[in-house]
Amino acid sequence: MVGTGLQAHGGITAVIRSYLEVGLFEQWGVRYVSTYEGKGKLTQLRTIASALCRITGLLAARRVDVVHVHSASRGSFWRKSLVAALAFVFRVPYVFHLHSGEFPDFYAHGCGPLARAWVRLVLRRAARVVVVAPRWRADVLRIEPAARVAVVGNPVRVPPLLAPLRPERADGAATVLFLGRLHEKKGIFDLVRAMPAVLSVLPATTFVFAGDGETEAIRALATEQGVAHALRLPGWVDGAAKQQHLEQADLFVLPTYFEALGVALLEAMACGVPVIATPVGGIPDFIDDGVEALLVPPGPGTALAAAIVAALQDRALRSRLREQAFARVAREYAFDAVLGQLRAIYAELGVPLGPATVAPAAARTA
User: Fold this and answer.
1) What is the pLDDT of residues 35-82, one digit of tens each?
2) Within this chain, do residues 199 and 132 fall inside the same structural domain, yes or no?
3) Measured distance CA(199)–CA(191) in Å, rounded
4) Which residue, 24, 175, 248, 272, is the most exposed by fewest CB within 10 angstroms?
5) Structural domain contains residue 163
6) Domain match, 347 and 303 both
7) Rounded to whole angstroms, how far apart are CA atoms 343 and 356?
8) Is the residue at 364 inside a domain?
9) Of 263, 256, 301, nearest to 279 (Cα)?
10) How confident is the model at residue 160 (pLDDT cuts 50, 70, 90)?
11) What is the CATH number of the domain that holds 255?
């Protein structure tokens, strides 16, 4: 299996770490190779060179039954396409697992004619192209009609029971949480611009943006909008720190312009945090507006602030949304369901594996 380093930030890392935490690597005999560590250019060159050498050695020694490549867009795709080429040369089937909601835009606007031909070739030669949401299947087939596409959602650890709804505080205080990359395409600046309208109605609200990226620009905009006092920027969080933020949140907001299938969004739903999101990418495949979450159009406007105020003022609405969201995540994105889909793909490729036993939370690896 090939992907990003376990200390890197982003959705692919979150998925890979979740596989590791539940014991999948040991049970299925997975050898994991990182092609990206998220550090400087020199380190990155060493990382990709080392990864390609290691993969070549494993393939040449006939110690690999299938190569499972986790890829995003742009640089991630170019790196992983080299791995796909190696697998093809050694006649080992490869699964090309796409995680990026930007992939169609990358193909249409980030590639010239030769690069597009290479993208199509990589997708066409794959034993399976895995996408994380049903609507991405059509996007891949528009790029390469001969691609053999399967849909496998991102797995999330779902507790046995839905956590109780956070009690309302006497002072009216509430916490709105964002988790992920802090950049414009995630709608984070739209969320800052929505803060004044929310605070004019609910002045005790705190906004927590946990992630990395354009933090200084966000601080500057918050100061300009007069809302810096209500903003917290703890940086990127993982593991216990992320769980703590989710447990302390009254509302999770993801006003993104693109999304494949947000891991943080699924985690919020599994933790029983009511959600507001945008109907982009794979989000409408598992969220119906007003059922599992409130959906608002991406971009500037009054809809985002209005939805935040409506949710924070209506405890019954929050309770209903979180109950429906928890039920859907437990049904469709729990580890047992997702790993069963992966196992079926491997079996079709001649690599039969036994059912994976998901390790209990107490036994997880940090």
Assistant:
1) 988 777 888 889 999 999 999 999 999 989 999 999 999 999 999 999
2) no
3) 12
4) 248
5) no
6) no
7) 9
8) no
9) 256
10) confident
11) 3.40.50.2000
